[in-house]
Amino acid sequence: MGSTSDLPVMKKAADLLNEFQVPFEMQALSAHRTPKEVEEFASTAEARGIKVIIAGAGMAAHLAGVIAASTPVPVIGVPLVSSLEGLDAMLAMIQMPPGIPVATVALNGAMNAAILAIQILAVGDAELAARFKTYKANLAQKIVKANNELKELKYDYKTN
Prior knowledge:
The chain has 6 helices and 3 strands, in the order ααβαβαβαα. The chain is mainly alpha-helical.
């Protein structure tokens, strides 16, 4: 993440990765304030066994792009709402030049970033894939249960 002030949003990714038993690193790195550390992190990621990187940043939000420029590892960007309603962060991630892609999720979408990372990792990990399929099935069941509970609500003009 670009700063520890991003932790409340990025924690959602960490929580889900932890739930899925996916080892991960968590660091505060700034493309503008600590560019040498970002370069070191990105250029050594593959050798350290990192398979996917989630990079969350707000404002100018160059972190994901700078990392993507320095590693062959897929990068998922999480644009954080901190100024201009997050539009600046989102544009910094989605407007990457050819050859330097950053897969970008919704504003403050750290949980979806973790889900996408898990899906990428699951391609080569049958156990993780099985846990993810169970997770998806449980998501569907939550909606079915919620809909059944809605049927029990009584209103004078409710027709179902």
